[in-house]
Design a protein that fits this description.
The chain is of the alpha/beta class. It has 7 helices and 14 strands. Helix 1 packs across helix 7.
Length: 319
């Protein structure tokens, strides 16, 4: 058991100038592949098998100790939503944010390591194209794409913030109160979104299903690749694993009632045909795919008023 009274990080700085990388694990307490991968890399740094010679790297093996100690996704709430510092913290995750956010802001690049509930292959999530828009302005798309390409997976997903903002608009249209789900698109801000807002860039690597024994290896390889790509360590850089499958999140569908149900046990990235039946509402109304694509993040345990699943299509953005 680790302490719930502090946030532990490990920083190694090379003597030559270089970028500042931060690697995070267990933002959700039951997602420990990243934690195990980080600890393996730290052991190799301690033994001399990896030597940090340029820039610096900070490892945060467990970002949410309360959730981690209880082996559940959240402590008081989801740390990866509404991630921002505040003068009057209201819950445990607010107190973490007051330490984690300045730590993120002090770095240039983030590798955030996660896992997911249902079976499926690992994938990486990147941010938007370069833009000056109000939702998520960004200027490092090329560097972020290069990082996404080298972490060792073939599936690359984008479009989180636009899809989430559209979901917020639909909740407002349905007249949901702030007591249910937050009605501000900033509620979708997590680690990578906060990193981009502070002038850096980063990717979220989903290392596979929570209990997949290969998950820690996926995390370990990604960390090694990132250290090599950024030049922090003089270690070999493996080429990207092509061909890439690039997808964009197009829409989020909320669960309205406990009686809403899926018509089958969906897995993330199951293909959908146009007009294919996905789920049935408690009132009997059907939810069908508006066009051919994929279902992403289907959550049979979603609470009413919260995101239930996402729809995705092929992305035209190059890597």
């Amino acid at each position: 058991m680790i302490s719930n009274a502090n946030l532990r990080s490990h920083r190694i700085s090379g003597f030559a100038p270089g970028p500042k990388l931060i690697v995070t694990g267990a933002v959700h307490g039951n997602e420990v592949a990243g934690t195990k991968g980080i600890r393996r890399v730290l052991a190799e740094i301690d033994s001399g098998d990896i030597e940090i010679v340029r820039g610096s790297v900070t490892f945060v093996p467990v970002c949410n100790p309360l959730a981690y100690n209880q082996m559940r996704r959240m402590g008081d709430r989801n740390l990866n939503r509404r991630l921002q510092p505040g003068a009057t913290p209201q819950d445990f995750e607010d107190r973490i944010a007051n330490v984690l956010c300045p730590l993120l802001a002090a770095h240039d690049v983030l590798l955030d390591l996660h896992s997911f509930r249902s079976p499926g292959q690992p994938f990486v999530m990147r941010g938007p194209a370069d833009n000056r828009g109000p939702l998520e302005p960004f200027a490092h798309a090329a560097a972020e794409a290069q990082l996404a390409a080298h972490v060792g997976v073939q599936r690359i997903v984008e479009g989180w913030m636009p899809a989430y903002a559209e979901g917020i608009a639909k909740r407002k249209a349905r007249g949901l109160t702030p007591g249910g789900v937050h009605e501000d698109p900033s509620y979708g801000v997590g680690t990578t979104e906060y990193m981009r807002s502070q002038g850096g860039y980063g990717v979220t690597l989903e290392c596979g299903q929570h209990d997949d024994p290969e998950g820690p290896e996926v995390a370990y390889v990604a960390i090694r690749q990132t250290l090599a790509l950024l030049g922090l360590a003089d270690t070999p850089l493996a080429p990207p694993v092509r061909p890439f499958e690039c997808l964009v999140l197009a829409e989020v569908i909320d669960r309205h009632s406990e009686g809403d149900r899926f018509v089958k046990p969906w897995t993330s990235f199951d293909p959908l045909g146009a007009d294919e039946l996905i789920a049935v509402r408690a009132d009997g109304s059907e939810l069908r795919a508006p066009e051919a694509g994929y279902i992403v993040f289907p959550d049979v345990s979603a609470l009413p008023g919260h995101e239930w699943f996402y729809l995705a299509q092929a992305s035209r953005r190059p890597v």
